[in-house]
Amino acid sequence: MNNSDAYKSIEQLASENGFFVSKYQVITDDGYILGLWRINGNLNNLSSQPPVLLQHGLGSDMMQWVMNKADSAPAFILA
């Protein structure tokens, strides 16, 4: 069995690390559909803090912000 985070979704990673995730879709004026995820805080204490936007670089995706353990992944630290 492969326990690598490489094959897990953001929902799986967040849940395993004790966080709640909300997914949103935004349609741009030219019809492109963007996927946005918000980590609202941990499962025991939902955050009421304003959101922080993390933008990945070209050739990458949002998973770069959650691929490590919760104490070192930037998205989980900010949540």
Supply the key terms.
79 residues; alpha+beta; three-stranded antiparallel beta sheet; 15% helix
Account of the 3D structure:
The chain is an alpha+beta fold. 15% of the residues lie in helices and 27% in strands. The chain has one domain (5-78). The protein has helices at residues 10-16, 74-78; strands at residues 19-27, 33-42, 45-46. The longest helix has 7 residues, at 10-16.
Any chance you could write out the topology, listing elements then pairs?
Layout: H1 10-16, E1 19-27, E2 33-42, E3 45-46, H2 74-78
Antiparallel strand pairs: 1-2, 2-3
Please provide a brief summary of the model:
The chain has 79 residues and is an alpha+beta fold.
Mean pLDDT: 82
Sheet with most strands: strand arrangement:
1-2-3
Beta-strand content: 25-35%
Number of domains: 1
Which sequence of SSEs, written as H and E, runs from N to C?
HEEEH
Rg, rounded, reads: 13 Å
Q: Can you give the helix content as a percent range?
A: 10-25%
Shape summary:
globular
Structural class label:
alpha+beta
Q: Could you give a short account of the major beta sheet?
A: 3 strands, antiparallel
Distance between the termini: 30 Å
What is the count of helical runs?
A: 2
Could you give the count of β-strands?
3
What low-confidence regions span 5 or more consecutive residues with pLDDT below 50?
Answer: none
